[in-house]
Amino acid sequence: EVYFKNLSKQKQKEVMEKNGNNHKLRVCVATCNRADYSKLAPIMFGIKAEPQFFELDVVVLGSHLIDDYGNTYRMIEQDDFDIHTRLHTIVRGEDEAAMVESVGLALVKLPDVLNRLKPDIMIVHGDRFDALALATSAALMNIRILHIEGGEVSGTIDDSIRHAITKLAHYHVCCTRSAEQHLIAMCEDHDRILLAGCPSYDKLLSAKNKDYMSVIRVWLGEDVKTRDYIVALQHPVTTDIKHSIKMFELTLDALISFNKRTLVLFPNVDAGDKEMVRVMRKKGIEHHPNFRAVKHVPFDQFIQLVAHAGCMIGNSSCGVREVGAFGTPVINLGTRQTGRETGENVLHVRDADTQDKILHALQLQFGKQYPCSKIYGDGNAVPRILKFLKSIDLKEPLQKKFCFPPVKDNISQDIDHILETQSALAVDLGGTNLRVAIVSMKGEIVKKYTQLNPKTYEDRLELILKMCIEAASEAVNVNCRILGVGISTGGRVNPREGIVLHSTKLIQEWSSVDLRTPISDALHLPVWVDNDGNCAALAERKFGHGKGIENFVTLITGTGIGGGIIHQHELIHGSSFCAAELGHIVVSLDGPECLCGSQGCIEAYASGIALQREAKKLHDEDLLLVEGMSMKKEEVVSAAHLIQAAKLGNRKADSILRTAGTALGLGVVNILHTMNPSLVILSGVLASHYVNAVKDVINRQALSSVKTVDVVVSNLADPALLGAASLVLDYTTRRIY
């Protein structure tokens, strides 16, 4: 770690020497509208805070300077930025021709500005037609371009503009792993791509707990409560203006019928925007008692409004990107954001062609609370971007280089070639210990924390949060980027909701417990929860013997007996989340009583508790200890003593172990006849003691068609933690688990 830090300092020193020790990087930030300013402002603040490295020039153009859209250049002045140039570039009109003329007007005016400012680099954001004019001007005038949010996929003409800017840009800052891979596939130079996350998340993730009620009252009225209002933001789709206006009309009709207080923001400056405003006025939205129609809301206040809304509706990228940070429900209408990565808070209504569809979506989403999602950032984008800017060598050739196929396998790197390892926080709730670990994508346990598991719900949850927060903080120091939290726990779990339904008797006060919500809210990370047996199966599928195997079963042999079933590469949960309770397969009608209340279960014969019970019986009858064994007076009799006695020739102990192995083997035979897996993996501390007995029972009792099954002992040192990690690593990018 010290080596890499010194390497970073040395590289920055070398770059400063190459650029000239006294030369500050002159950065021109050009902002076109309220949306791109919300992404650029955090970078501008960062640049302004380091005057020893940077000189900042701010150019304002586009809809910032239009009264109908709130004259939003004022918020830039309120943020105490000096605006060096204002360019009126919007040609008013309602069709595609007006957009083209606006680009042309910007191209006419920008050369004079850039000649005067002479920036070393221009920062351009996103996919607006104004941004295309900026990038075109800078490229033709041999000015380096840093493009923010390239590589993403949404819909309509925006994709074409975004990718065109990518081809003009010299450096790229992207927000997601998929966007990075798209840039690589587009032949961009790997060394000039930075996976930083979205700059707006640096502000979002620290904003929710600020005073928000005053903001809500200002914009929606004194009588509005949190989670009881809607934010609507819808823009025209320039490739299908007529349909998008009709969809906006249907949206307003649905909102009127839904009868909730609603904040409606005016659309962007695009072909069709004026027609949408006319639809609003035709329906009387500006005077309707349930609606507040506004041209602009300052970004800090907008964050508070969407964070505490009952729902957001429309087709703005804000809905599928930023709002996920708060878990606010979103209804995404139409095709404008098709292709965007989204959290599970987003419900897509692709064909929003009737009022009833939109109204039904509102009924489904309004008032829900989803896990917070950090797909687009972790709150540390700006430091990465500033570091990236400092690394730019102005003496390098300006001409772009394209990396044509074949493309080498590459993981995103920062400017010091220090890999940020994609990792998960894994939590294992055992009967005795509570463990938290940072686990890498390759299954390496980078750091592990262990505490005794508290006996009460409140103390246990408090300790989980404390350990997770500590581990998440440490992840930065060990260069790991946490994608989410996976939790392995005993008992019956509803993984869809992240709730422990019923616990085992080994963990007290642990039924009907919502684990997902408090942990997700505290860490701003997605959270997955599952049964420990299922987690063991997932660990084998990703890291162990089950890798690449279509159908296999994992049996955990420890304090209890559990397991997980993988069928056609997928984990089976069952209709009531009770699948793979393998320890409670009955192998004898009159066997010993099990903790579940039944008799003759595998767990009643072969679990650590069962072996301990039999060991105590032998010890009470002075039949346990044999030559070579000794026990202290206060020492508790355990299953380990029974195993040791059997190894030293105690026939009764050996008979108990053989009976336990036979019971487990009969259970495995039942599984083979039911599921017909190609592999059985025995996991846990007792696995090596049972494997031969299980194979013998299969040879004696199983049908010939399943006798060829492989029975192996797991080679994973910590399947519970690895399984909890795989919940995150396998499903982070899925919308629904």
Walk me through what this model shows.
With 737 residues, the protein is an alpha/beta fold. It has four domains: 19-198 and 380-391, Rossmann fold (3-Layer(aba) Sandwich); 207-365, Rossmann fold (3-Layer(aba) Sandwich), CATH 3.40.50; 416-543, 2-Layer Sandwich (Nucleotidyltransferase, domain 5); 545-715, 2-Layer Sandwich (Nucleotidyltransferase, domain 5). Helices cover 39% and strands 18% of the residues. It is built from 24 helices and 26 strands. A seven-stranded parallel sheet has the order 3-2-1-4-5-6-7, with helices on both faces. The longest helix is centred in the last third of the chain and has 25 residues, at 651-675. The chain is elongated. The protein starts with a helix and ends in a 6-residue tail after the last helix. The relative contact order is 0.08. Zn(2+) binds at residues 584, 594, 596, 601. It catalyses: UDP-N-acetyl-alpha-D-glucosamine + H2O = aldehydo-N-acetyl-D-mannosamine + UDP + H(+); an N-acyl-D-mannosamine + ATP = an N-acyl-D-mannosamine 6-phosphate + ADP + H(+). This is Bifunctional UDP-N-acetylglucosamine 2-epimerase/N-acetylmannosamine kinase.
Mean pLDDT: 89
Assembly form of the protein: single chain
Strand order of the largest sheet: 3-2-1-4-5-6-7
Structural class: alpha/beta
CATH architecture of the largest domain: 3-Layer(aba) Sandwich
Keywords: Allosteric enzyme, ATP-binding, Cytoplasm, Hydrolase, Kinase, Metal-binding, Multifunctional enzyme, Nucleotide-binding, Phosphoprotein, Transferase, Zinc
Pathway: Amino-sugar metabolism; N-acetylneuraminate biosynthesis
Domain UDP-N-acetylglucosamine 2-epimerase: 53-390
Main location: cytoplasm
